[in-house]
Design goal:
Elements (H helix, E strand, L loop, with lengths): L1 H33 L2 H19 L10 H22 L3 H17 L7 H29 L4 H18 L5 H19 L2 H8 L1 H6 L13 E6 L5 H18 L2 E7 L5 H6 L6 E6 L14 E4 L3 H18 L3 E6 L1 H8 L1 H17 L3 E6 L7 H10 L2 E4 L2
Length: 389
């Protein structure tokens, strides 16, 4: 019976190591796609973490095993540095560099197998788990970002390793808990409320920290009526609204139907530094990652727009960060898809928009519609109508 149990221990540790390496592969793949350093540092961290586990397959960890300890400390170094860069926690970088020095001192001590030295080695091996957990709790409190999965995952890893050190949990169960915990951590990193933080906190969170009080806008559908040939007034209005949202800590998402607001033009106005852009272009076939990428290109599909709205609302609820979605233009959607389809889409989203206290702003050109009755239906839905000259 014992040999079978030992085989299960070896198998579980092998699976634990392989799962960690697979997650590292996907994190590094995300980095290649997005060029975000957080994914790079955590990818390297999980790579070294997984290598540490595989090196220890079939062995009992001791303080004399310098290679696994080196891999583990290297992995923690990368993960903690990723957090430090993400939320500007420079102070924890000092701890990152102190930990390997302390561990090296313990390994080079005259009696590395001493019980006291062994205990200190375990304590300093567990300290990074606690440090990562506390950093995530700080992120959750400071930035109102949903990191529940990451917190539960790292807490489970800390608890499992602590239980193993105190002989309260068998190695087989430790590996099973670790596998579950790492999958939770990975799923949490895919949450829109967390991935929006990864882009660059100084631009996404700190720069949008409220500099003035929000005057209560939100939970509304606003229509902005504009003459078809007067783009300058529309652009001026959008620019002022993006600036106002930035000061009040509100994220702005501009939906440019048929690329009527070109990316280059918005970039010249400096809007892409403070707003997200969704370009709806027929036949683009592009995948969408709203609230992850600054600019995304998607196909001209109302169903896809429905999914995008759902992602934005979910992000807003998870991160407790209010959003304004500006559609330019509602008239273009109506001309292409018919008023009934667009009306159904809007009415289905209004309850969740109002519940989440977000804002939908739709530009439209009344004179471009053959039937005034069609556009009146949307005006009845609106909480406010703004007329631009």
């Amino acid at each position: 019976m014992k040999p079978m149990y030992e085989e299960l221990e070896v198998a579980s540790r092998l699976v634990n190591g392989l799962v960690t390496l697979v997650l590292a592969f996907y994190l590094l793949r995300f980095y290649r796609q997005s060029h975000r350093r957080f994914y790079l540092t955590w990818g390297i961290g999980f790579l070294l973490y997984g290598a540490n586990i595989l090196v220890r397959v079939g062995t009992v960890p001791t303080i004399g095993q310098w290679l696994p300890a080196l891999l583990l400390m290297g992995g923690f170094l990368a993960i903690i540095m990723g957090i430090a860069q993400l939320v500007n926690l420079r102070r924890i970088i000092y701890v990152v560099f102190v930990l390997p020095l302390v561990m090296a001192g313990l390994y080079l001590s005259p009696t590395p197998e001493n019980v006291m030295v062994e205990a200190l080695g375990w304590i300093f091996s567990l300290l990074p788990y606690l440090l990562i957990l506390l950093s995530l709790l700080y992120i959750q409190r400071r930035y109102s970002t949903n990191v529940d999965f990451q917190v539960i995952g790292w807490f489970s890893l800390l608890l499992a390793n602590l239980s193993y050190f105190t002989h309260l949990m068998e190695p087989l169960l430790v590996d099973l808990v670790a596998i579950f915990a790492k999958i939770l951590i990975f799923l949490g990193m895919l949450n829109p409320g967390f991935t929006s933080l990864i882009e660059d906190v100084k631009r996404y969170m700190i720069s949008t920290s409220p500099q003035e009080y929000d005057l209560g806008r939100g939970g509304e559908l606003v229509l902005v009526s504009s003459p078809p040939g007067n783009r300058s007034s529309s652009l001026r209005w959008i620019t002022e609204r993006v600036e106002e949202n930035s000061r009040q800590g509100v994220s702005t998402i501009i939906v440019s139907v048929y690329d009527l607001l070109p990316q280059a033009e918005l970039s010249e106005l400096g809007l892409l530094e403070k707003a997200f852009l969704v370009r709806m272009i027929p036949g683009s076939g592009g995948a969408y990652k709203v609230m992850e990428d600054r600019v995304v290109t998607v196909d001209d599909d109302v169903n896809l727009l429905d999914l995008i709205f759902s992602d934005i609302i979910r992000y807003s609820v998870d991160s407790k960060n209010r959003c304004e979605i500006i559609i330019y233009t509602l008239s273009s959607l109506i001309h292409t898809h018919g008023w009934k389809r667009v009306y159904t889409f809007l009415t289905s989203k209004i309850p969740s928009i109002r519940f989440s206290q977000n804002l939908i702003t739709c530009f439209y050109f009344p004179d471009s519609h053959e039937s005034p009755a069609d556009i009146i239906k949307f005006e009845v839905l609106a909480d406010r109508i703004i007329n631009l000259e």
